[in-house]
Amino acid sequence: MRALTREVSLSAAQFIYPLFIHEGEDDQVIGTMPGVLRYSVAGAAARVGEALALGVNTVVLFGIPGHKDAQGTQAYHETGVVQVATRAIKAAHPQVTIIADTCLCEYTDHGHCGPLCEIGGELTVDNDAALELLAQTAVSQVRAGADIVAPSAMMDGQIGAIRAALDAAGFTHIPVMSYAVKYASGYYGPFREAAGSTPSFGDRGSYQMDPAGGYREALREARLDVDQGADYLMVKPGLPYLDVIRVIRDAFDLPLVAYNVSGEYAMVKAAVAAGMLDERRTVLETLIAFRRAGADAIMTYHALDAARWLREDLL
Predict the structure, then answer these.
(1) Cβ burial, residue 2 (10 Å; 0-12/13-18/19+)
(2) Distances (CA, A) of 253 to 191, 220, 248, 287
(3) DSSP track, 63-104
(4) Dihedral through CA 107, CA 14, CA 262, CA 40, nearest 10?
(5) Is 236 assigned a catalytic role?
(6) Distance CA 265, CA 193 (A)
(7) Catalytic annotation, pick one of 68, 90, 182, 269
């Protein structure tokens, strides 16, 4: 009877599975994220096959280059790690939907989301210079076979710049998934170890959002990206901002994604390892919370485990 009247559904098709891909030949363990690996290109293609078999049809690719420089040039090179991985994954699994994370922080030697400039005697990100490089990155990712680009740099004007570049290159059909409401958060620590993207100085607080900024700021940020041509909106992190997910859901009719980020994942894994929580029950309850708050899709490192558990429930 509960199943008959249940308002919130959860399915593997609603999950987006993040993959870290590096240029080496072996898959590498990530100490802060049990069960998550840095995959080789071949390893990533095999993992996508596992995801598809479980009904998880969408993945997002984060690249870890072998070489970094001040401009993040490997982000937009045709032989960059994400571009190579995209072609290999599409060759093996043409039915998968590939989202390319469009950012520079994994590719710059300073760990910030764009090239640097000096203002008032202090180094900071050159927003307008970053826009040009992000646009180049998006176009190169789509040429390699990405189905969706997801700009995560939080540069002012990035959605408009990327939309214009995609259209000019003939990719008018490619959607842009905006990290529209992305907070300067302590929950990103494990990701930064996994992707090797910790800033070498300062932090990203000058271009990511203030956790105490409130709903009006969240709505402004989302509206700016909608007006520039975003096709999807995202709230990141997820769990500390369920209220923001609901506010964005009520204000906009675009598809909405919640990012169940690395710190949220790591906390559950640590509690489970300490015998404090039941992993299956806790993870599924968390994912249901995102859906109940209004998310259409969930980017989560739990995707394959959750898909298995949901399949077991149907047997």
Answers:
(1) exposed
(2) 30, 15, 9, 21
(3) EE-S--BTT-GGGS-TTSHHHHHHHHHHHH-TTSEEEEEE-S
(4) -50
(5) yes
(6) 14
(7) 182
Cα(96)–Cα(93) distance, rounded to whole angstroms?
6
What pLDDT is recorded for position 303?
98
How far, CA to CA in Å, does 220 sit from each of 139, 209, 252, 279, 294? 27, 11, 12, 37, 19
Question: CA-based angle 303:307:312, to the nearest 5?
Answer: 155
Q: Are 219 and 189 in contact (CB under 8 A)?
A: no
Q: Which helix (H) or strand (E) holds 246?
A: helix 242-251
Cβ within 8 Å of residue 311, ≥6 positions away: 12, 54, 55
For residue 113, give the 3-state DSSP assignment. coil
pTM: 0.94
Closest CA to 224 of 242, 204, 187, 251: 251
Residue 180 host element (H or E): strand 177-182
Tens-place pLDDT, residues 82-105: 999 999 999 999 999 999 999 998
Give CA 14 to chain center in angstroms. Answer: 14
Classify residue 49 as exposed, middle or buried by CB count within 10 Å of its CB (0-12, 13-18, 19+).
middle
> Which residues, in sequence order, are bridge partners of residue 101?
150
Residue with tokens 């599409």: 90
| pLDDT single digits (tens) 238-290 | 999 999 999 999 999 999 999 999 999 999 999 999 999 999 999 999 999 99
Q: Which amino acid, 34?
A: P
Give the CA-trace dihedral at 264, 270, 276, 281, to 10 degrees: 50
Whether residue 90 lies in the annotated active site: no
- Number of other CB atoms surrounding residue 223 within 10 Å: 15
Total Cβ atoms within 10 A of residue 216: 9
- Report which DSSP code applies to 78: T
- According to DSSP, the β-strands at 122-125 and 15-22 are unpaired
Strand partners, 259: 299
